[in-house]
Amino acid sequence: MKYVHSLMLPIAVVGVFMFPAMAPATSPGPVDTAGVQIQQEQQNGISYLSGGIGVDEARFIEQAHGYNLHMSFSVGSANEYLPGVNVVVQDTHGHSVFSLDQAGPLVYVSLPAGKYTVVTTRNGQERRNTVDIGSGAARELNIHWSGDQYATGS
Fold this sequence. Notes:
Blueprint: H1 2-18, E1 41-43, E2 46-51, H2 55-62, E3 69-75, E4 80-81, E5 85-90, E6 96-103, E7 106-110, E8 114-122, E9 125-133, E10 139-145, H3 147-151
Parallel strand pairs: 3-10
Antiparallel strand pairs: 1-2, 2-7, 3-4, 3-7, 5-6, 5-8, 8-9
């Protein structure tokens, strides 16, 4: 039994080096801006970024500052990034203050302080999350769909 355990560690280390594609989608590093098609946009006075297709776009958004709500959309057991999500941010009275169609897989928004309901929809399947935006650190909102939702298309 001792012999089997002593072999497991080297096998695990070799496996990590043989399968780098299993690493997280992005990692800190330089951004090749030639591959980035994203720029800050505004809606109702609210600044936002939406995109993240490819490593450079994802890194560009993840390294952006000044956004207090960071949303990411994923699918399946591998948590793959998922674009094509409809997003509506509502105030405490249920009024829409911000909305995007076919957004993501990353959406960073700069909202005024307050409580909001974030409604995200993908293929008719809705997710509702409440966020409290203050003056502290950015609020992270990771929204996940099962794998069958991705296969049905937009």
